Amino acid sequence: MSVSRLSHISPIGVEQMALLADALADPEVLRLENLDTDLPPPPEALSASLAAITRDDANSYLPFLGQNELRQLATQHVNQTACTDYDWKTESLISAGGLSGITNCLLALLEPGDGVLMTDPIYIGLINRVRLAGGVPHFVPLQPHTEGWRLDVSALASIDPQSIKVMLLMSPSMPTGAVFNPMEWDALLDFCRQSDAWILLDTAMERILFDGLSVFHPARRPGFRNRVITVGAASKEFRMIGWRVGWVVGPARILADVARVSISNVVCQTGIAMPAVAAAFKAGSAGIPACVAEWQARRDILMEQLYAFQLIRPLGGWSLLWDTRSLGLSPEVLSKRLLERGKVAATPMTGWGPSGQHYLRLVFSNEPIGRLSGLRERIQRVLGNVQS
Description:
Blueprint: H1 14-24, E1 30-31, H2 43-52, H3 68-82, E2 92-95, H4 98-109, E3 115-120, H5 124-132, E4 136-145, E5 148-151, H6 153-157, E6 164-170, H7 182-195, E7 198-202, E8 228-233, E9 246-249, H8 252-265, H9 274-282, H10 288-305, E10 311-312, E11 319-323, H11 331-342, E12 344-345, E13 347-348, E14 359-363, H12 369-372, H13 375-383
Parallel strand pairs: 1-12, 3-4, 3-6, 6-7, 7-8
Antiparallel strand pairs: 2-9, 4-5, 8-9, 10-11, 11-14, 13-14
Helix pairs in contact: 2-9, 3-9, 4-5, 4-8, 11-13
């Protein structure tokens, strides 16, 4: 029997889909199930990775909070985005990936039973981490609209602010691609004032924005510099998934506790990876605008291919959701049929928030436009004729 802390920890679903797709050993399978990308990291990062193998300082436990150059660069990036002045020496650390940073923050912030505000649908890995840290998720729905997902502000207003210790926010969110608009940010920040909560901001995809949208960081607002903890990662924007490097930037009074958890948890980060992420930071745009343009084009192809179905338009990120209720099929059944009959791997969102049970996720970051352009034909093999 599993220990009690695992009683509410669920599989993310991607691992099962990936195993099923791998077992087919068929290059024709369209891999839309996992949040990978085929777009390469910055070349400067690749060169730095190779050089780091020979560096003695990259083969060390020290410094425990991460290499100084990367801490400085990550803090500089957050300061530029947030228009503030965090001190890299006391208000930043490097984590072994963004999710490790989030876990360490939750362990430093939460007492058992503390409430954590999250949007729904949301990545099940975030829900699991909240529960592992003893937190209780409180979900605010994201509602599908013609222009994309919108935060249910009325549902937010119905939550008791005093029940919330942490607001775990992500914009663009995963898996929805939801991006908060100014009115929604106003509502969230007003709730934060009422609850005196921390904002734990997951910025893994903050610059992967479509349709001309721009980055907003809540620490820009007066009075929020000392309420926001920013967790970033090299995985998405720099396309450096395997390097497992993230960063945490926030007020010194809580970063000292996060550092204590970090040292007790992972001890140190991947030494040969940190110089590579520093090189990516120093590479200017690091190819991000060109990659975003490509990902937006792939999103548009998916929307065109499946316009006859209930796809919710993402405004950023790497994935979109398909509401399968109009088909009279559960996401699990549709996923099984797509793989068996259409050679399409896609993950059901079971457990990804209360409403996740209605959706199938399609990841568009890992397949080129040429292959995505054949999706309608594959769907026809599974569901019959798709309107043209």
